[in-house]
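REQUEST ID: PR-0412
SUBMITTED BY: lab tech R.K.
PRIORITY: routine
TASK: structure prediction, single protein chain
INPUT:
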Amino acid sequence: MPTRILVVEDSILISSALQILLESGGYEVSVAETAGDAVKAGLALPPDVVLLDLTLPDADGLTVLAQLRSGGVTPVLKLAMTGHDDNSTRDRCIAAGCDEVLVKPVPARELLRIIGERLT
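STATUS: complete
OUTPUT:
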């Protein structure tokens, strides 16, 4: 069974590009544009990887991780994506359970490398 990745991103351009990239890498990809949709999708079909934008229209993206965890879903790999390259944001993401914090724009090769290395 292919690795399931949940992309949580409110920018359709970014989420579409990520979906194409990840599917071409052999991953099964679901996309959610809001925290609410992400939690529903993650509880219905638990992902192996969550790729999470921090700034969503309905909530801070880190609430998605907390709600998935409270629903019994713990992805193997949790990656935060943010435009803020500062220690405060990084510390907040790590404290919330993220394994890595990626600064946008995230290089495609780096993203595939991280996912590949962390899942083997």
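NOTES: The chain has a mean pLDDT of 96.
REVIEWED BY: pending
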